[in-house]
């Protein structure tokens, strides 16, 4: 499934932009693993993008995870001082990944059971940022919420490497 993801336009675009930013990624940068935790994947500095193959059975889900995690990799590449233990840094990358990856597209939200028509995109990004940042052992729920609010405008409007939010 990962091999199919590598051929999608969005993944190709992200890989090209990682390389343009000076972060070459090898053949093992994106790989499938079995995960104990009930997560779909993650980005780990120095290891790359990890896709939890034991929790993925639909190609579109794999594509989404790869795109989301490549945005984290791009953020890590372009920000020399990105500190994943810093709640604001983590929140910013989650805001960007949620907003730019398509995670919060109306169709995906509808399939998850969220049917709010107005403002569903931002609501979804906020919900998913909180879920991810509170899973960071360095960020309490209050710290995650404060960090998200503090960086929201700058990070939500930062669409690099895209010209605008896809």
Structure commentary:
- The chain is mostly helical and 166 residues long.
- The chain is built from seven helices and three strands.
- It has helices at 2-5, 9-20, 59-78, 87-100, 106-112, 120-134, 141-156, and strands at 30-33, 41-44, 48-52.
- The protein has a three-stranded mixed sheet with strand order 1-3-2, covered by helices on one side.
- Strand 2 (41-44) and strand 3 form a beta hairpin.
- The longest helix is centred in the middle third of the chain and has 20 residues, at 59-78.
- The radius of gyration is 15 Å and the shape is globular.
- The model has no long low-confidence stretch (mean pLDDT 91).
Short description:
The chain is mainly alpha-helical and 166 residues long.
Which short descriptors sum up this protein?
166 residues; 7 helices
The Rg value, from CA coordinates, equals: 15 Å
Strand content: 5-15%
Q: How does the overall form come out from the CA principal axes? A: globular
Give the helices and strands as they follow along the chain: HHEEEHHHHH
- How would you write the strand order of the largest sheet? 1-3-2
Structural class: mainly alpha
Uncertain spans: none
Q: How much helical structure, as a percent, in the residues?
A: 40-55%
Taking the sheet with the most strands, its summary is: 3 strands, mixed
First CA to last CA: what distance? 23 Å
Query: For the residues shown, what is the average pLDDT?
Result: 91
Tell me the number of strands.
Answer: 3
Number of helices: 7
């Amino acid at each position: 499934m990962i091999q199919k993801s590598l051929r999608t336009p969005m993944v190709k675009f992200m890989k090209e932009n990682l390389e343009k930013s000076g972060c070459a990624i090898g053949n093992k940068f994106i790989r499938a693993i079995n995960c104990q935790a009930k997560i779909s994947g993650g980005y780990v500095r120095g290891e790359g993008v990890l896709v939890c193959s034991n929790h993925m059975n639909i190609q579109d889900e794999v594509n989404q995870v790869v795109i989301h995690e490549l945005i984290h990799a791009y953020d890590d590449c372009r920000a020399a001082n990105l500190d994943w233990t810093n709640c604001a840094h983590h929140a910013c990358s989650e805001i960007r990944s949620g907003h730019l990856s398509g995670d919060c597209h109306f169709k995906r939200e509808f399939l998850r059971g969220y049917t709010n028509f107005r403002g569903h995109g931002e609501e979804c990004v906020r919900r998913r940022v909180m879920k991810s940042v509170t899973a960071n052992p360095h960020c309490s729920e209050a710290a995650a919420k404060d960090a998200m609010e503090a960086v929201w405008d700058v990070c939500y409007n930062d669409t690099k490497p895209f010209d605008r939010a896809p």
